[in-house]
Structures are given as structure tokens and as C-alpha cells.
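User: Can you predict the 3D structure of Geranylgeranyl pyrophosphate synthase? Sequence below.
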Amino acid sequence: MAFSPLISSHCSSSSSTSRILSPTKLRPNLRSSSSSSSSLSTASNSVQFDLKTYWTALIAEINKKLEEAIPVKYPERIYEAMRYSVLDEAAKRAPPVMCIASSEIFGVPRSAAFPTACALEMIHAASLIHDDLPCMDDAAARRGRPSNHTIYGVDMAILAGDALFPLGFQHIVTNTPPEVIPENRILAVIAEFARAVGSTGMAAGQFVDLRNGNGNGDREGVVEFVQEKKFGEMAECSAACGGLLAGAADEEVARLRRYGRAVGVLYQVVDDVMESRRDGGEGVKNKKSFVRLYGLERAMERAEELREEAKRVLDGFVKVYGETKVAPLYSFVDYAVDRSFVVGDGEESNQGSSLKSSL
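Assistant: Sure. Here are the predicted C-alpha cells for Geranylgeranyl pyrophosphate synthase:
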């Protein structure tokens, strides 16, 4: 899945909802004002970065390419259902934006990364359609409007999700320029997609979430697993795919995985904290939340740990590729905490309150 003020290495339960943590020094140091412009500071120099402009510009390009990728064909109804979720104007497009940002560290042209980026959004939309089903999370609304099955029916929603998964694979294969991205890298990206959505990835998180829905899910190991798989897996895949497209070294791809996983879980932990505050500190409805397991104060500390973990992972990239190329990924981390501006056409307050909102 922008960034705002410098965030502290300690947490305070008295902070406002918009500022989960308080300021402190970071190394490297990402500072944001009340606007969307940030600076990445090191001992040598300072790099200015405006995440909002970067993210908004990419959203416009991604939306256009997604519109072209899913034209209405026969049978029209299934394509309409697919487009309803994929082309949602409130979507933040964080998976494709994170993919492009990570690929640009290594110099991959955007034109070569866009097919994978758009496929990530298709996979993301498919997973949300299925998560919202009555037999899964039973969510009647998504991003402030009716869920896919509420409009098109459960049967059509299942088919729309089923169709989007393979469409994502097909889109990568047929649209990635082979003269820029060799075949072995394309295969590696497809394998990464399959891993992320499969029985060791998001499907595993959904299974454990359902299996422990009777109240036994407050155990620490279960909560950690569900959060990592349901909310960290998509971001992990998005960041890793940027490196895979570039043919990055295995160790670099592994670091991108750790970064994405930390940011994905961080975003959800902050969502839980924000919801708890709106509810007067009574906790959140989601039984698999850190707030319910640890309490508000410890959940805020966990958010800070995840933020620091994500930034530590990026430090190695700065040493090799420079601050400018890594600035977007640094910025994602602080935005996950501060939510300093609205992404997409939805209201951030609504996005933040949704237990299913994601990067």
C-alpha cells in the first residue's frame, strides 16, 4: 500500500487517532510535515520526497491500465462483477504501487513493471471478494459501498474472484516485454503469486481465522499467524515481485519480503488501534487483533516495532542504491502509521475503521 511526521520509538496511549506514535529520531530519518512532502535525511545529505504526488500519479496510470485489461465481454455479468471490485475508485492501489517502487530501486522501467503491478491488484481484488463472502468474513460492505456478493450474489462473486486469479497470471505472461524482463524472471514472479495466495499464504491465514472463530483465536501464535498471512502476505508479494522482475539477488528479494510483510501487518495493527480509539478503548470486533490480544498500549508498541523493523531492512538498500531510490518504500512505512493524506477517492477515516482495509 505517503508520509507524515516523524514517528517515535515509544508509544503513548494519549496520542490522537491521526498520530499513533510521537516524534523521535530515526536512521535514516524520514520526516514529513502536515503536507505530503517528506525528506529522507542521512549524515551526508537530505532527499526530498513527496509520496502523495508519487502515489497519486501511479494510481492514475494503474487505473487506466486496469480499465483496459478487463473489458466487458460475453458473458457480460461476470465481467461486470470483476470490474466492480477491481475498478473501485476508493482503492488505494498499494500492492501495485509498492511493486513499482521496489522495482525502481533496481532500475526496472515502469512499462515493464506495470503488467505485474496490475496483476497484483487483480489478485488483491479477488482475495477481498472471497474474504467478504458470508461463508468467510461475512462483510456486507467494502470501502464504504456494498461488497461484491451484495450486488451480484454469492455465486457470481465466487466466479468473479475465481476468474480474476488466472487473469492476473495471464496478464503478466502476455503483457510483460520479454526484451526487458527475461522469461525466467516472469516465471519467478508467477511462482511468487502462487505462493502468496496458496495454502501456505493467504489461504492459510483465512483457514486459521475461520477455524479459530469460536473465541479460541486470542492465543498469541494464532493472532500473529493470521495477521501475517491475511494482511502481510499481499504486501510481501508486492515488494518481492519488484526485486524478482529486476533479477535481484536472493538476499535482496528476501529483504524485500521482510519489508513488505512488516508493512502489511503494521497497517492492520494501526487500523485496529484507530478503531479501538474510536470505540472508546473497548477493543475491536476482530478477535484476531493485537489490540484484543495485548491491549491498546502493547498494540501501539507492536506497531512501532514493525515500523522500525521495516526501516532497518531498507537501510541496506540505501547503502547500495542510494536514498533517492529507496525513499518511496521508506515513505510507505510512516504513512502506514500516520495516514497523513487520503489515497483514492474514499475517506481515510472510513478506510481506517474497516477491519478489512489493507494496503
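The chain has 14 helices and five strands. The radius of gyration is 19 Å.
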